[in-house]
């Protein structure tokens, strides 16, 4: 437990140092950090993992410690950013705002996506350790575009960015997707970069966390 906590602490410290340097240079406003639990998609129960999100005016930085993963499997993490969370449907920002009738098979809820300024794109990736844990670290700036992330769709389906609101105003969800047993070479690159790619035998959204403003 102490070793695991130390590793996660180093990852979080590194991300906070990045934000601190930017603040000191006068590029960003002072930051704040909140910690949230990580949950299973299957039943909404806690996984035992935790997620830290550091916010500044123009950037968010995430440090996620995931538990309960399949050892040796490849996992990607995806930003789901609600730039205007006040426009989300009750009881809060979620799949009803992203998909028609809340069902991915029905396609996007275009009006909901536009209203809440929702953007989805790649954050980072890793391979689960033998003990089923993995650490993820990622940064998202308001100026980031397709060249910085694989963007599935930009905020509100317009422009090319995921984060268009202040980093302090957006609601940020992080989704962990399983790509199955990690492969080698170019196949591994696909697994660690693209949504639903290189899956063995199939990809599945397994865990998530929510950081509200």
Could you characterize the architecture of this molecule?
The chain has 213 residues and is an alpha+beta fold. The chain has one domain. The protein has helices spanning 2-24, 95-98, 110-116, 185-191; strands spanning 32-40, 46-55, 59-66, 73-82, 118-127, 134-141, 151-153, 171-181, 204-211. A hairpin with a 3-residue loop joins strand 2 (46-55) and strand 3 (59-66). The longest helix is centred in the first third of the chain and has 23 residues, at 2-24.
Provide a concise account of the structure shown.
The chain is an alpha+beta fold. The protein has one domain. It has a nine-stranded antiparallel sheet with strand order 6-3-2-1-9-8-4-5-7.
What is the strand and helix layout of this fold?
Layout: H1 2-24, E1 32-40, E2 46-55, E3 59-66, E4 73-82, H2 95-98, H3 110-116, E5 118-127, E6 134-141, E7 151-153, E8 171-181, H4 185-191, E9 204-211
């Amino acid at each position: 437990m102490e070793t695991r906590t130390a590793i996660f602490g180093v990852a979080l410290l590194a991300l906070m140092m990045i934000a601190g340097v930017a603040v000191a240079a006068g590029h960003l406003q002072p930051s704040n950090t909140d910690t949230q639990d990580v949950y299973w998609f299957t039943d909404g129960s806690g996984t035992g993992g935790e997620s830290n999100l550091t916010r500044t005016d123009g950037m968010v930085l995430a440090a996620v410690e995931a538990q309960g993963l399949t050892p040796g499997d490849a996992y990607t993490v995806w930003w789901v950013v609600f730039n205007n969370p006040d426009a989300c449907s009750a009881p809060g920002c979620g799949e009803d705002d992203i998909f028609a009738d809340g069902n991915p098979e029905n396609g996007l809820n275009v009006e909901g996506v536009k209203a809440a300024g929702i953007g989805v794109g790649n954050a980072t990736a890793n391979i689960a350790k033998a003990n089923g844990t993995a650490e993820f670290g990622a940064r998202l700036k308001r100026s980031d575009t397709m060249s910085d992330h694989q963007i599935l769709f930009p905020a509100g389906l317009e422009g090319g960015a995921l984060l268009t609101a202040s980093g302090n105003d957006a609601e940020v969800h992080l989704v962990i997707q399983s790509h199955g047993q990690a492969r080698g070479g170019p196949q591994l690159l696909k697994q660690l970069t693209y949504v639903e790619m290189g899956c063995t035998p199939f990809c599945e959204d397994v865990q998530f966390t929510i950081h509200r403003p």
